[in-house]
Amino acid sequence: MIDFYTRKVKFTQETFTEKLSLILDGFPRLQDIHPFHKDLLNTLYDADHFRIALGQLSTAKHLIEIVSRDYVRLLKYAQSLFQCKQLKRAALGRMATICRRLKDPLLYLDQVRQHLGRLPSIDPNTRTLLICGYPNVGKSSFLKSVTRADVDVQPYAFTTKSLFVGHFDYKYLRFQAIDTPGILDHPLEEMNTIEMQSITAIAHLRSAILYFMDLSEQCGYTVQAQMQLFQSIKPLFANKLVFIVINKIDVTRPEDLDEETQAQLQALLKPGDVEMLQLSCTTEEGVQEVKNAACERLIADRVAQKLKGGTNASGAVGGRLGDVLTRIHVARPMDGVVRETFIPEAVKNRQKYDKNDPMRPKLARDTEEENGGAGVFNVDLKDSYLLADDAWKHDKIPEILDGKNISDFPSSRPWKRKKRS
């Protein structure tokens, strides 16, 4: 009977430990995830609170194992069945008390789990277009125009309260476009959770930044305020492609602004660093051109970064480009004589093929067209055989020769070597 009560204590401990381990393994470890996801989790759920909740579960798991080990030891030295039963009840009661104290952490982690399941899947390493700017400047409308994302578009500010992701293909490559919530121009410590999601995405994602502006001021913010916000968050754009996208050009274009405002807008642009693009999501004018220009620049920039790959400790060029250059050796003659490229005369005098020239060389395609075209005329594949007599070209190869199958003769298979005796 002592073994019966011992098994009950051990089974209860293993059940609690298994359930708590599943919960702990189901949540990401902050030190193992990408900095973007780490900061996003900190913004939405408070990373310290998240660590404390997981720590409480881990501590409870450890305490349950200690309780089980101690009471199993006591059961071995029990002097009666009644004492064994009391020890078993005490062990299960202490385990239940430990788990009952996990009510608040488990409730918090369940809310985090449900919210994490509703977040969009963002790959921080893929080709990304990041759309940012003031609220109600047309960010969600652009995302809905270039992707199949189901984004809520409304004529009032702060319609987008979280990150939205859409996907599209350009030149057979998959891109993701991220619509961030609107940002207001105030200090970082005064930003709310909605705005901090945008700051987190801009800071950590390797992407092309599309900063949207509304020169018509229908968004409720002046052009000066929009340019001031660009200057405020510009430090987050370091080492990224940046495009200032002028939206609603069907209402107001940059040329319609006064000269002072135009000069301030041009001051934001830098050749090779910040470019200006124009579109109208209402009339679809320039939408595809903006998407294609951003994707083209992003592809070229990612290829250049992969080729460079940084430098090693000695200062030499590293990465893939460095690996290739170290394998290439260009030998130059030591006598100093310049040797011109040799091109045979037959190649120089070769006449370029011209379909309209009656004296052009006859191609197999011309013969095919003269005899009815594809599907009617079949090209003679045996015509180019090199045999001692051209009359043999179309002879049928016999299957049987002298009463034997030719394929059985080793001499008819020159590619097979004879076995050495």
TrEMBL record:
Coiled coil: none annotated. Keywords: GTP-binding, Nucleotide-binding, Nucleus, Ribosome biogenesis. Its main location: nucleus. GO terms for cellular component: nucleolus. Residues 352-375, 402-421 are annotated as: Disordered. Gene3D superfamilies: 1.20.120.1190, P-loop containing nucleotide triphosphate hydrolases (3.40.50.300). It is found in: Nucleus, Nucleolus. One of its GO terms (molecular function) is GTP binding. Pfam families: NOG1, NOG1_N, NOGCT. InterPro entries: G_OBG, GTP-bd, NOG1_N, NOG1_Rossman_fold_dom, NOG_C, P-loop_NTPase. Residues 352-366 have a biased composition (Basic and acidic residues). Residues 127-299 form the OBG-type G domain. GO terms for biological process: ribosome biogenesis. Involved in the biogenesis of the 60S ribosomal subunit. This is Nucleolar GTP-binding protein. It comes from Lachnellula occidentalis. The lineage of its organism: Eukaryota, Fungi, Dikarya, Ascomycota, Pezizomycotina. The gene is NOG1.
